[in-house]
Amino acid sequence: MPLRYYDFYAEFPKRLQATEGKQIHLKNIPTGFVTYFGVHGARLKDKFPWFYMEEEATFVGSPANDLIEEFSTVPISMPALTLLALIGGTALALGSNQILRHARLPAVTLVMGGGIMLATVCITERYLHDFYPALIIFAAAGVPRIESSRRAVPLTGLLALLSLISVALNCSFSLINQRENLGAPPAKMAEYEHLQGSINRFLHRPPPPPD
User: Among 35, 88, 148, 189, which is disulfide-ready with 141 (CB 3.0 to 4.6 Å)?
Assistant: First the structure.
């Protein structure tokens, strides 16, 4: 749909001009790819819960990006799924059995479907989920490959560790989004700030400066 039909863009002509009136731009794909699949997907701050999403995209060329919201990246926020997907991608490419060969079509289709968001004018965390279906197919193809590997035990241990990292990061992102970004009720905001102060005192650290 042309952006001139969006009320938001009709109210801000400069945004409409910056995006050339279109939601999809092929020239945005390199920026979208290196941003969502790069390693700059989190920031450290000196206050609980410490791990915050990234705010600055990695630009390639002259993309027509209009809005950059906080975001994480596939390898940073989903390291276990990323590793499994990479292993599964090799298995799908080799196609050692009929099941894997049959899985190629849905895998490629889901990559293409999710990849559309790489060309959009906005970079945001919620668009990252468009790749979940493809990642799950690739990861599922990687599980049997790990099971049959001579390094199955250390690989499983590594995946467990990466899964814990993923859970910690995403819990942190969720808490921040609920308590700092979406206008939580004042009582919950006060409770959250009290928790941050208590943790800083426990760690013998001075309170963080206000944002």
Answer: 88
CB crowding 40-67: b at 16 or more within 10 Å, else e: bbbeeeebbbebbbbeebbeeeebbbbe
The structural domains of the chain, with segments of one domain joined by +, span: 3-202
Q: What is the pTM of this model?
A: 0.83
Task: Supply the DSSP symbol for 95.
Answer: T
pLDDT tens-place string over residues 148-192: 888 999 999 999 999 999 999 999 999 998 888 777 888 888 888
Which alpha helices (H) appear in the chain, and where do they start and end?
7-11, 13-18, 29-36, 74-77, 79-94, 98-115, 132-147, 152-176, 186-202
The CA–CA distances, whole Å, from 19 to 10, 76, 124, 175 equal: 12, 29, 16, 32
Q: What is the separation, in whole angstroms, between the first and last Cα of the chain? A: 37
